[in-house]
Input
Amino acid sequence: MATYFRLRRDGIAAEYKVVVIGAGPGGLATAAALSRLGVQALVLERGPRVGTSWRRHYDRLHLNTVRWLSGLPQTPIPARMGRWVARDDFIAYLELYAERNELEVRSGIEVQRIERRGDGWLIRTPTETIGAAAVVVATGYNNTPRVPDWPGADRFTGALLHSRDYRNAEPFRGQNVLVVGLGSSGAEIAADLAQGGAARVRVAVRRGPNILGRELFGIPTQLLGALAAPLPPRFVDRTALRLQRFAFGDLTRYGVPPPARGLVAELLDGRIPVIDTGFCRELAAGRVEAVPAVERFDGAQVVLAGGRRLRVDAVVAATGFRRNLEPLVGGLGVLRPDGTPAVHGPRTSPTAARLYFIGLTNDIEGSLFEIARDAPKIARAIVDRAGEAAAPCSPAASPAENVPNAAR
Output
């Protein structure tokens, strides 16, 4: 198999059969699946190395999905990495995966826009334009930090950072810290701060979340989710609420509202449940306090819903991420109003054939499990449809000579 580079008179620097955007789990898994079918894809990564988003997560992060259900196709996560794989171990696994599958990854390349060109695509970067017959978008669920536009935040005299910039509790030792947002990251950061020496830790809660443990009676919650996937959503929602009450008791007495909707309904809206790794224990012990949502900032104080004021040293905004797909594919008719892909996996939009999305949705069975399932399907769909597209490196496309860059 061969990958071709060439300089062209129309300004296209290179032609590929497939370009994958993003060298996280979804991008690497799809490129590896294509390689096994005889297609060498080019993987473009905006960061300096594979797994850029994972490298930015806080130190204590572990996968909330069990190791043996979190590996990418054909390469299991090594058993030595334990039941719940640590962040650094998972990054090492991604590096191993890219090396073992001999993937062609170009780092430090930020794709600005994908444009239609005939029956193929143009990938625009700050330095060059690349042509491709098919494109796989794997830019990740946690692409761009989202911070609310709180009034007065620009004049806050304390430290204000997004959860992506939080590493560990050491810089906050002895400080009064407010974590905003009770998702999995907010809950784990709050527990980390309480256990790491912060003087006082509060969590601002706007809405009550669904909360699950990593396992129940030794059975991974992810496995239970897989078993529950074909069941009626209302039954799953009721069961999840009962399990939450059984595992953690009535959290309303600690200031955490009950979830407004069930687990499945939240997942359909892109909200994953909180996976508890110690937060509820810290909450019950009084080492973490739940408070109402943040309304605005006033100098050194944070004003909460209802008017309560807090004087804090630092605020950690665990307020989530945006997929930020609009600059990349906006105008192609492939996004829902909320910015999520209208289709994902092996399906493509009628208006954008051969443009695929992976790793950008939430699934009750876990995002890595979904990636491992979707990557081979996408690769097979690309190969099966290859005959419908013109060969991207055909001599008729340009008088320039094809020069093989790599043959495998």
About this structure: The longest strand covers residues 12-21. The domain at 2-143+323-400 is CATH 3.50.50.60 (FAD/NAD(P)-binding domain). Confidence is low (pLDDT under 50) at residues 1-9, 389-408.
